[in-house]
Amino acid sequence: MARRPRALRFTLAAVLAVVLGGGACSDYGGDLSGGGAGGGSEMGAGADGLKTVKVTDTAGMPSAFLIYGVQRGYFKAQGLNVRVQTSAGGAAAIPALINGGLDVAGSNVVSAMIAMNRGLPITMVGSGTRASTDPGQDFSGLVVPQDSPIRSAADLAGKRVAVNTLRNINDIVLDASVQRAGGRPAGTKYVEMGFPDMAPSLERGDIDAAMLIEPFLTMAKSAGMREVARPYTDTRHGLQIGTYLMAREKATKDRRLVSSFQAGVRRTAESISRDPKAFRQALPGIAGFKPELAAKIHLPSWSGATDRASVELIGRSMRRLGLTEREFDYDKGVLK
Predict the structure, then answer these.
(1) Residue 124 near residue 112, CB atoms below 8 Å
(2) Residues in a beta bridge with 124
(3) Is 235 helix (H, G, I), strand (E, B) or coil?
(4) Residue 137: CB atoms within 10 Å
(5) Measured between alpha carbons, how far is 286 from 280 in angstroms, rounded to an integer?
(6) Is 334 within 8 Å of 251 (Cβ atoms)?
(7) Half-sphere exposure for 213 (CA within 13 Å, toward CB)
């Protein structure tokens, strides 16, 4: 693949600098450092009568959702002092759940199911991010350079596609996009890299396509990239991507904590659904987005309740694609 002109690469860098703000900041009082996931749990009532709960979720929109709920007082209303930590991904937080260093961890559904199928004592206690029911509002996108010969996901055979993690939700949703477009993914090579590196790699010609989520999808399109598929909604409208996990023993023994956390998530989800503009206005302070970027991106959806149809669809796809050999036991793996 020919490399793109040097001037165009400079243009891309300039656009990225304009639409993405500096480091995240927040006035909610929680821990955004991402550190301290080990160590002892802080469960127990404080001087204010609230039960302190350590929660971690992926940096970006998933953790922004939780922080917004904390700022709005939805968890405090349930008697919880939620201390949010950010992480690179849910799989890394699972050991801290089991050893008591965390009380709740946000994860993607695939990592959670792989861990449970391997016998790790964790359980799903609620839904995290979900795709929109409207394909036009999907917060994921498969993008290519403007002059790429790739016109749809059916053209991915033999191509190099950037994904943020290997053997994960990307395998499932990209496979669904290819099938929906009438193609076969034979020979497609997935290349693991961070979201911020994908658009520059496309411009250099190092890869042929990139699987992006917001805000990187809007950033890439603003820089002239072309969207050829919407993998999450291609898989299922309203597809559940994220989930909240707890150690099974803790979740079973402390059902009040579970129900209180679920209620806080549900109230946060209802608030954003009712007034998405307020959430967008909060994103610059919570996640460091430039205001103009926060106003343009497609937001994920949240509901609080686990979507059985999504979980079972992902489970079937995982077995078909060889990500797991076992059938997922929904009734055992999801705490009602």
Answers:
(1) yes
(2) 245, 334
(3) helix
(4) 14
(5) 10
(6) no
(7) 22
Dihedral angle over CA of 240, 241, 242, 243, nearest 10: 40
pLDDT tens track for 94-139:
889 999 999 999 999 999 999 999 999 999 999 999 999 999 999 9
> For 137-163, how does the pLDDT look when each residue is reduced to its tens digit (9 = 90+)?
999 999 999 999 999 999 999 999 999
Confidence of residue 60 (pLDDT cuts 50, 70, 90): confident
Q: Tell which residue, 20, 95, 90, 28, has the closest CA to residue 62.
A: 90
The structure tokens listed for 136 are 């036009």
Burial of residue 49 (CB within 10 Å: 0-12, 13-18, 19+) is exposed
Kindly state the helix (H) or strand (E) to which residue 58 belongs, with its residue range.
strand 51-58
- Cα 309 off chain centre by: 18
Q: Report the alpha-carbon distance of residue 69 to residue 76 in Å, rounded.
A: 9
Q: In what helix (H) or strand (E) does residue 114 lie, and over which residues does it extend?
A: helix 109-117
Q: Where are the beta strands (DSSP E) in 62-204?
A: 80-87, 104-108, 122-127, 140-144, 160-163, 189-192
Prediction pTM value = 0.83
CA separation for the pair 108, 253 (Å, rounded): 24
The pair of structure tokens assigned to 122 is: 């964790």
How far CA 308 is from CA of 135, 263, 330, in Å, comes to 20, 19, 8
Q: Coil, strand, or helix at residue 311?
A: helix
Residue type, 76: K
**Neighbour count for residue 302 (Cβ, 10 Å):** 26
